[in-house]
Amino acid sequence: MISFLFIVCVASTPAYSQNHGHHEGLTEDQYQEHIDKYWTSSNTDNDDVLSVAELHTILAYYDLNKDGTITRHEYTTFLSAQTPELLSYAHALYDIYDADGDHHLGMQDLDELYAKMDIDGDGTVSKTDFYNFWNQILHDLAHLHGHGHHLG
């Protein structure tokens, strides 16, 4: 659910919608706005810390056949049904989430994702950690929006 909400927010941004097909990407301010929305939708208990339990809620959301894992096919099928133009972005995110590269996201992958998001290594994902993580991801994947133009 977390990345789905994030991708939908990016796709529905006026700048993305209007510039899709042109050589303009999202601005830094627009990315920050999306991260704000992403944080709000992810931190469901509004306690300024993203818990492992909050991150694990995505497993049930995307696990279409309820087998306890999310396959690349489940993830991309779900996302492409919502926003087909962002299929390549969905693959890139899945690659980030799939820590062991087995094309199945399970609790271990999500735990490793949580550890990656814990930028300062204190065992929790604070709002600052979350923003720093997603800023880095967005900069790394900016070429998927705006046809090769990176932020900066």
Describe the structure.
The protein has 152 residues and is mainly α. The protein has a single domain, classed as Orthogonal Bundle (Recoverin, domain 1), CATH 1.10.238.10. It contains 8 helices and 4 strands, in the order H-H-H-E-H-E-H-H-E-H-E-H. It has a two-stranded antiparallel sheet with strand order 1-4. Strands 2-3 form a two-stranded antiparallel sheet. Helix 3 crosses helix 8 and helix 4 packs across helix 7. The chain is globular, with a radius of gyration of 15 Å. The two termini are 28 Å apart. The C terminus is likely disordered.
What key phrases describe this protein's structure?
Recoverin, domain 1; about 150 residues; EF-hand-dom_pair; mainly alpha; 4 strands; two-stranded antiparallel ribbon; EF_hand_dom; calcium ion binding; 8 helices; about 60% helix
Outline of this structure?
The protein has 152 residues and is mostly helical. 60% of the residues lie in helices and 5% in strands. Keywords: Calcium, Signal.
How would the blueprint of this fold be written?
Elements: H1 2-12, H2 14-19, H3 28-42, E1 49-50, H4 52-62, E2 70-71, H5 72-82, H6 87-97, E3 104-105, H7 107-117, E4 125-126, H8 127-141
Antiparallel strand pairs: 1-4, 2-3
Helix pairs in contact: 1-3, 3-8, 4-7, 5-6
Instruction: Order the strands across the largest sheet as they lie in space.
Output: 1-4
User: Helices and strands: which structural class?
Assistant: mainly alpha
CATH superfamily: EF-hand
Number-wise, the strands total 4
Instruction: Please provide the ordered H/E string of secondary-structure elements.
Output: HHHEHEHHEHEH
Main pleated sheet: 2 strands, antiparallel
